[in-house]
Amino acid sequence: MMQSPEGTLTPAQFEILQLLWDAEAGLSAAEIWEAIRESRDVSRTTISNLVDRLEKRNWLVRSKEEGVFRYVPSVDREATEGKLAAEFVGDFFNGSAANIVLSLLGSNQISSAELKRLKAILDESKSRKK
Fold this sequence. Notes:
elongated; Arc Repressor Mutant, subunit A; DNA-binding; 2 domains; two-stranded antiparallel sheet; mainly alpha
């Protein structure tokens, strides 16, 4: 049985997981580094260390294919994003999802398209609870 991931994620670690969720067959540490360095300057050693830590903390699973270690996430995107969102709301908004939404609305950070999407999600959630 696979162990649950330990600890929380840094933005850089989450970036690695996002790349891996989008990759069909996983990626090597070198491929992860190449993808990330397209958008910002980062050393190969830094990425290797991040990947190694993620694997040791059970966020990634490693397999060897044709002499190269490939990594895949051990958790799905939705569960991880939900965990991170809950931690963020707990740490910064006293555990209140309403407070974060009100904060975003007050700062004009939500587009009209996002508002429509939120309304649809709320309506769907409300109908499931009936």
